[in-house]
Write a structure and sequence with these properties.
Helix 5 links the parallel strand 6 and strand 7. With about 220 residues, this protein is an alpha/beta fold. It is globular and about 45 Å long. It is built from 8 helices and 8 strands, in the order E-H-E-H-E-H-E-H-E-E-H-E-H-E-H-H. It has an 8-stranded parallel β-sheet with strand order 1-8-7-6-5-4-3-2. Bound molecules: D-xylitol-5-phosphate and zinc ion.
Amino acid sequence: MVKIAPSILSADFCNLNSEIRRVSGADWLHVDVMDGAFVPNLTVGVPVVASIRRHTDMFLDVHLMIDKPARYIDAFCKAGADLLSVHLEADHPARIADALHAMEANGVKKAVALRPITSAKAVLPYIEQLDMVLVMTVEPGFGGQAFMEQQLSTIREVRSLIDRYHPGCELEVDGGIAPGTAGKAIEAGATVLVAGSAVYGAENPANAIELLRTGR
Ligand code: DX5
Ligand code: ZN
């Protein structure tokens, strides 16, 4: 069964504790960290992840949309992240490898993320050591954007690389997941779906989560 990871980017940050409780039926909690440089938006950082950790046992899936992420891996691990995703476009390959190594040393799950422009093959140098690959289906930076249908081919390509080189690796799809696109992402090979506006914009987030799980 596919996992659902609601993104708190679409939550009310003044009521984060109750907003997290509203999605407690989900599998993971997705936290979008943005630095205003790698993406044209600013969100939350290490202290907010640490606060969230004190208030929930949910699996914290932390998506780092920041330049040179290796600088902050230890801090996010100590703050209580369960999994960290670093973007392949955010630094040189040797520094991405350093970031993954730091996650390993902290016992935190390791993922790389791909902007829409990045080809599936870019995961090849890392795939055997990864717990997850994150494929973006919008340009990272903002919630509420439309799903990029052309990314279905990237999801399929990553799916076939995972099947070939590391079948246990999760494949997360992030951006524009809603009834209507969830099924397409699952069919293309996703095992984890991030959803911000489709969950927090729904009258009943618990129902929205269950619907997405069925691929609707
Ligand atoms: C965008 C973020 C996403 C965002 C998804 O840069 O990485 O996680 O919250 O929001 P929706 O589901 O509204 O597209
Ligand atoms: Zn995200």
